[in-house]
Structure formats: C-alpha cells, structure tokens
Amino acid sequence: MNRRQPLPAIWLISDARNDAALDRALMRLPRGSGLIFRHYHLPQGERLARLRQLQRIARARGHTVALAGSAAQARRWGAQAAYSADLARGAALLRLVMVHSLRELRRAARADAVLLSPVFPTRSHPGGKALGPLRWHAISAHARVPVIALGGMDARRAARLKARHWAGIDAFLR
Q1: CATH number of the domain encompassing residue 16
Q2: Residue 3 lies in a domain
Q3: pTM metric for this prediction
Q4: Per the structure, how many domains does the chain have?
C-alpha cells in the first residue's frame, strides 16, 4: 500500500440515488474519510464537473477521493485513488478493487485495499445474496491488504462486524 496516504476508515460511495445528498454527507463525514466517485450515469463532461465540485469539499475536509475508472484517468482527474480492476501502479495513487469471493480476493492481491461485498442485503440489489458476517470474516481473513466492508453497511453494522474499514451508499442519506 502507498504509505504516503493512509487508508480512510469510512468511505462514501456515490451514485445517482445519493447525488443530491453528497455535498452535505461529505461535510458531515469525519475528517479524513473517503469518497468513491462513481456517477456512471453522467456523460463524461458532466461527470468531471460534478467530481470537481465534490473534490473541493473533500479537500477542505481532508477526505481521499477515489475515481471509479482507470488509474491513468484517476491521475488525470486529480483523484488520490482509483476504484477499478486496473491495478496499474502510480505515484501516490491508492488502488481499490471490488471483490465478492475468495477467488476474486486472490486475484486482487496487488490492490492496496479491497471492498468485500455484499455483507448484508442492499437496496441496490434487492433479493441478491449477501455474504453475511461469518462468511465476510472467513473471506477477509485471507486478505493480504485491508478489507473494506460494503453492502448494507452503516456505522452500527460496522461496529457489530468489527470492521476497521467500511463503505456505504445509503448509510449517509439520513
């Protein structure tokens, strides 16, 4: 992992559903948290413009910004991290990868951190199968990098799971 930049404990993940609440949520997050900016629903120009707005807030709060995209794009757009399967190395760039199984975890061994999902049922994937706390712990025990819990997460569930790192989409809408 890139030691110049600590891995935030709490991550806010953006999407079309939570866009209206992102500015306020970023300001309420503890200093030094993280934002994973996805916004796949926006055309490229609008996506970059929205990222720039959120980066201003994030910088003022000491948050890390990860761009869903390649490492090269994350560097071009001024993000401190890339959220993708692209594990290209880059100066001062954290590389975050989503995994759903032990097999995927092993393939992501070169990442700086992984998001292991879904821990609990989620609104974004109704009826989808969740790992549950026991399976999440069993898989994460094999990780050689920090594991970020995702899927139905909020502060209460993160505490119950004893997850050092967690991420949410809906958890910050309240």
Answers
A1: 3.20.20.70
A2: no
A3: 0.93
A4: 1
